[in-house]
Amino acid sequence: QVQLVESGGGSVQSGGSLRLSCAASGYVQTNDYMGWFRQAPGKEREGLAAIDGADRTTYRDSVRGRFTISHDNAENTLYLQMNDLKPEDTAMYYCAAGAPNWSLQFGTTYYKYWGQGTQVTVSS
Prior knowledge:
Blueprint: E1 3-7, E2 10-13, E3 18-25, E4 33-39, E5 46-51, E6 57-59, E7 67-72, E8 77-82, E9 91-99, E10 113-114, E11 118-123
Parallel strand pairs: 2-11
Antiparallel strand pairs: 1-3, 3-8, 4-5, 4-9, 5-6, 7-8, 9-10, 9-11
């Protein structure tokens, strides 16, 4: 049984940083994508960053240069380092895994596995 467990969310002031973690069990990344998504109240879930088995990364324009996705194979943990946070980054953040490498990196329907989410709140 695959489980993805996020941690590291919290409340920070604008300009601050957070590092999200997603510990995976029952799942090992091979050629597929792992990614980070977020969903704010009343909005659709959106993809932020994705990484493939060769550590190639893709970012949403609004977070490129501020967020960094990485994957530690030894710990089987996905990370999202978030710097220069803004109030508009406030949302529930989710990690996801298992999207085929031919799929859209930010297509939510392609991901097989999802974590329960961790809340990030950024105040101005």
